[in-house]
Specification:
The chain is mainly alpha-helical. It has helices at about 1-10, 25-35, 45-55, 75, 80-90; strands at about 20-25, 60-65.
Length: about 100
């Protein structure tokens, strides 16, 4: 898996034995990824969603739900209202001078 190889290649850790934890604020995506059942609707999904589900089934990846307000990556991935942005930056532990 790309993330596992990247972390190991950067020599951050020697190896990763546990599944990588991925936080997601989309409850439907989390439910689908963690579901072992196959439904008719699953036939029409893009292969990238099926790829994630396979990694979960192989115990290489763990998808967990996290509330949107707790998703600290949001300021790096989308525009946010100033108050929400400031709260996220503060929760990341960055100094107020960067706001």
């Amino acid at each position: 898996m790309l993330i596992r190889n990247l972390v190991t290649g950067l020599k951050i850790v020697n190896s990763i034995s546990r599944p990588l934890k991925l936080y997601c604020d989309n409850s439907a995506a989390v439910s689908f990824s963690n579901s072992n059942s196959s439904t008719g609707a699953g036939l029409y999904l893009d292969t990238k969603y099926l790829f994630v589900r396979e990694r979960v089934e192989e115990n290489n990846l763990c998808i967990e739900y996290i509330s949107t307000k707790d998703m600290l990556a949001d300021p790096m991935t989308k525009g946010l209202p100033p108050k929400v942005y400031e709260e996220h930056v503060r929760n990341m532990g960055l100094c107020k001078d960067l706001i």
